[in-house]
């Protein structure tokens, strides 16, 4: 199982990657949406995308919309954010089924969610 983590905060990338790798997942990292989209175009084995919403440049919403348009139904998603002011977007049809976690995320909680999503 391959997981792509997208976040502009280096320590979050490192902490989540280490925890997921310890559980046996193959983890790829991106610190921008553009880098994440390049990884997705070049790697067909990714099953799960964990993304921050608010990042410099493009947002996590833009990443998910692009991934959904390019490969509908291929990926599962987890959204993380330090802001809970995205209720309108999160309640839209395309996002309301995606798991949303408020930062700081609990590593055990995210590992449980990843396990559930990847069964």
Gap between N and C termini: 10 Å
Q: Provide the spatial order of strands within the biggest beta sheet.
A: 2-1-3-4-5
Quickly count the helices.
5
Poorly predicted segments: none
Global mean pLDDT: 90
- Tell me the count of domains: 1
Strand content: 15-25%
Shape: globular
DSSP helix fraction: 40-55%
What's the number of extended β-strand segments?
5
Strand-pairing-aware structural class: alpha/beta
- Main pleated sheet: 5 strands, parallel
Q: CATH first level: which class?
A: Alpha Beta
Tell me the series of helices and strands, N- to C-terminal: EHEHEHEHEH
The CATH homology group name: Response regulator
Which short descriptors sum up this protein?
five-stranded parallel sheet; 119 residues; Rossmann fold; alpha/beta
List the helices and strands and how they pair.
Layout: E1 2-6, H1 10-22, E2 26-30, H2 33-42, E3 46-52, H3 60-70, E4 76-81, H4 87-90, E5 99-102, H5 107-117
Parallel strand pairs: 1-2, 1-3, 3-4, 4-5
